[in-house]
Each structure stands twice: as structure tokens, then as C-alpha cells.
């Protein structure tokens, strides 16, 4: 492989001229595939409300998130408006669309298709970036280490795709952990050393905005589920219409807790920190939790609208309470990074959800759905009142 000239890779990299890098239409177009992927995940969980179903959905969610996350970092360094990077994004989109189509049967007969698509995205993108960087660029050693870890995980993904379903869970869990944890210690590998977060010369505002856009994608899924579930019901009774309103207000509350209280401050903090690479890594770890909460909430919305007077089972109780709870945990961690403090409103919201659990069995899906929505609205109101008193760390 020939070493690219410095002029070549400088054309492909984003200009760092002191202005915040904007999110391009190519990146927004790319995100559309992930709207489909998030929908597939929520449907998979809805139809597999068991411990095994939860574990499967969690593994698949990590794959969806990590594929998006690593691409997001790549487009933070490389300019998506150049033909070469645009081509790379569109190739990833195609593979990701096929991967998302295989999601519902990833633990059945489409495991190998899923694994090959995913491993091709992760390894292929990193090889492509390395080729265009050349050996002498400051970012090249980081991409080399990344390639090493993604190649290790690719072996586990493909081995899992070939294995029996019970082995698949183990092998794919190891693969996801390889990719999720390796950045925590700088993709350290024998002979290649380790990367420091200070070397990850990211554009902070762009990264924060990309994370926020993924939250919008996930919230879009809760709106889509709310509308689609109502649409397919033959009779729109009063309980069903109340459930519909409750689900919509729940989505609104989730938007409020994140966007109306902290998203702009998050962009500011990452843009002005002395180590944007470290804060950027925190953002990605935290948003995986936060968006996971939204996906579970979408499943809860579907259940409430379809069966408002349905009897509560343990699976339903966990689903309806876990979605908002996971979302609040993600938001609390996010605000810890942004403000240096965990908001009291979020702790109070989590306590309220826990207190609600024992009473859930005495009522129906609609009542619990309505009460979780009320809790989220109270947290949003409380947080918007208090946000001006919180100081940056």
C-alpha cells in the first residue's frame, strides 16, 4: 500500500478553523438507517419479553450503537462532504440496512448475515480510514490500534454467527465488550501501545450534536410506535385514547428532561474542555444507556395502547418501569459530566419509580403508564426550574 501524501489526507479531514463543525446532510441521511434499526430492536423486545429476549436485545442494541458510534467519530475527523468519505458512508448504510433487516432473526437463522454485515462495517471503515490517512498522520496509530481490536471482535461476531444460539449469546457478548471497553484503555495492544484521549482531536460541538440527533431518532421511534399502535386498532375506545395521550405526553416528558434542560450546555462543555476526547468518550458511553431507556419505553407504550386494561405481569411491570428508569439513569450520568452534579430531581424520579413497583400488580397497564408519565413530567418541570442553579464543573 502506498503512503498517501499529506495533501491528500488533509483534503479529506475536516478543517479545524475554530468554528464549530456542522452536521452535514450526508450524516443526517446516514442516520435514517438507524431509525429502522431502532424500530427493529423495539419490535424484537416486544415479541420476546423474557430474560433471554432482554439479553438478546441488549447485545443487538450494543452492536447497533457501536456501529453508529465508531462511524460518528470517523466523520468527526473526516469530512463527509468529500466524495471518498461520502462513498464510505453510503457503503456503510447499505450494510447497516441489511444488518437491521436481519435483526429480528439474528438469534435464529440470520445470525451469520448479521455478523458478517456488522464486522464488515467495523473493520472495513477502519481499513478505509487508515488507507486514506497514510502511515505518517498523527491519527494513524490510533486507527491501527482500533483496527486490531475491531478485528479481534470480528472473529467473535462471525464465530457467534456460525455457532448454536446458546453459544451465540456468549460469543457476541464478548465481541460487544471488546468494542465497548477497548476505548476505555486507549485500544491498548502489545507492540502498538495505547492511545491517549488527548490525542483524539475531536470537534466537541459536532460530537455532542450527533449524540443529540440520535436521541431524536430514538424519540421518533416512541412517536412512531404510539401512532402505529393506535392506527392498527379497530376500536378507539376511551381507555385506548387516554393511553395514546399518555404515551405522547411520556415522549414529550423525555424530550423535556434531555433537550430543554441540558443539551445546549452539553455542547458547551465538550467544546470548551481541555480534553474533548475524554468527554466525548463519556458522551458515547452514557448515550448508549440513555437511548436504551427510550427503546424500552417505546415497547411499554405499545403495550399500554394495545391493552390499556390489561392485567399486569412481572414482564409488563419491569418493561413499563425500566424504560423511564434507565432513561433517568442515563440523563443523571450525562448531567454529572456536564454540570459535575447528579440532579436531585432525577434521584427523586428513580425513587418514585421503585416505590411504584409493588403497587403495579394491583392495577392495570394504563394506570402504570399514566403514573410513569406523571413522574417524568414532574422530573422535567423540576429540572427546568433548577437548571440555572447548576454550575459547570
Would you mind describing this structure in some detail?
- The protein is mainly alpha-helical.
- The protein has two domains: 6-199, no CATH class; 204-389, I/LWEQ domain (Up-down Bundle), CATH 1.20.1410.
- Helix content is 75%, strand content 0%.
- It contains 14 helices and no strands.
- It has helices spanning 6-12, 25-47, 51-77, 83-102, 111-133, 140-162, 165-181, 204-231, 238-259, 263-272, 276-306, 314-339, 344-360, 365-386.
- Helix 4 (83-102) packs antiparallel against helix 5, helix 12 (314-339) packs antiparallel against helix 13 and helix 13 (344-360) runs antiparallel to helix 14.
- Mean pLDDT is 83; it is low at 1-7.
Q: Which secondary structure elements does this structure contain, and how are they paired or packed?
A:
Layout: H1 6-12, H2 25-47, H3 51-77, H4 83-102, H5 111-133, H6 140-162, H7 165-181, H8 204-231, H9 238-259, H10 263-272, H11 276-306, H12 314-339, H13 344-360, H14 365-386
Amino acid at each position: 500500500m502506498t503512503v498517501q501524501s499529506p495533501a491528500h489526507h488533509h483534503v479529506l479531514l475536516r478543517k479545524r478553523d475554530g468554528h464549530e463543525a456542522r452536521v452535514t446532510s450526508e450524516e443526517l441521511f446516514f442516520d435514517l438507517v438507524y431509525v429502522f434499526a431502532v424500530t427493529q430492536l423495539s419490535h424484537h423486545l416486544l415479541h420476546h419479553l423474557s430474560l433471554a429476549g432482554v439479553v438478546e436485545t441488549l447485545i443487538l442494541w450494543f452492536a447497533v450503537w457501536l456501529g453508529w458510534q465508531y462511524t460518528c467519530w470517523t466523520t468527526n475527523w473526516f469530512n463527509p462532504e468529500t466524495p471518498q468519505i461520502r462513498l464510505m458512508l453510503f457503503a456503510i448504510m447499505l450494510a447497516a440496512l441489511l444488518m437491521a433487516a436481519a435483526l429480528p432473526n439474528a438469534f435464529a437463522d440470520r445470525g451469520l448475515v448479521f455478523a458478517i454485515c456488522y464486522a464488515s462495517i467495523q473493520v472495513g471503515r477502519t481499513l478505509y480510514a487508515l488507507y486514506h490517512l497514510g502511515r505518517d498522520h498523527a491519527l494513524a496509530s490510533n486507527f491501527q490500534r482500533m483496527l486490531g481490536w475491531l478485528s479481534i471482535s470480528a472473529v467473535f461476531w462471525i464465530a457467534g454467527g456460525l455457532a448454536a444460539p446458546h453459544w451465540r449469546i456468549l460469543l457476541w457478548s464478548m465481541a460487544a465488550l471488546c468494542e465497548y471497553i477497548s476505548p476505555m484503555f486507549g485500544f491498548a495492544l502489545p507492540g502498538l501501545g495505547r492511545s491517549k484521549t488527548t490525542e483524539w482531536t475531536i470537534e466537541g460541538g459536532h460530537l455532542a450534536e450527533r449524540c443529540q440527533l440520535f436521541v431524536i431518532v430514538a424519540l421518533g421511534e416512541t412517536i412512531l410506535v404510539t401512532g402505529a399502535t393506535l392506527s392498527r386498532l379497530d376500536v378507539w375506545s376511551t381507555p385506548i385514547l387516554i393511553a395514546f395521550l399518555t404515551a405522547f405526553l411520556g415522549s414529550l416528558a423525555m424530550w423535556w428532561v434531555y433537550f430543554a434542560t441540558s443539551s445546549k450546555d452539553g455542547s458547551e462543555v465538550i467544546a470548551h474542555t481541555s480534553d474533548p476526547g475524554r468527554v466525548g468518550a463519556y458522551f458515547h458511553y452514557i448515550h448508549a444507556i440513555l437511548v436504551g431507556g427510550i427503546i424500552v419505553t417505546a415497547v411499554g407504550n405499545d403495550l399500554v395502547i394495545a391493552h390499556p386494561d390489561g392485567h399486569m405481569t412481572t414482564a409488563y411491570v419491569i418493561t413499563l418501569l425500566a424504560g423511564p428508569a434507565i432513561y433517568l439513569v442515563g440523563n443523571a450520568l450525562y448531567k454529572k459530566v456536564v454540570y459535575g452534579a447528579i440532579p436531585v430531581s432525577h434521584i427523586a424520579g428513580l425513587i418514585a419509580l421503585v416505590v411504584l413497583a409493588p403497587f403495579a400488580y394491583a392495577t392495570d397497564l394504563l394506570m402504570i403508564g399514566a403514573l410513569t408519565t406523571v413522574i417524568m413530567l414532574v422530573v422535567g418541570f423540576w429540572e427546568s426550574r433548577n437548571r440555572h442553579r447548576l454550575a459547570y464543573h
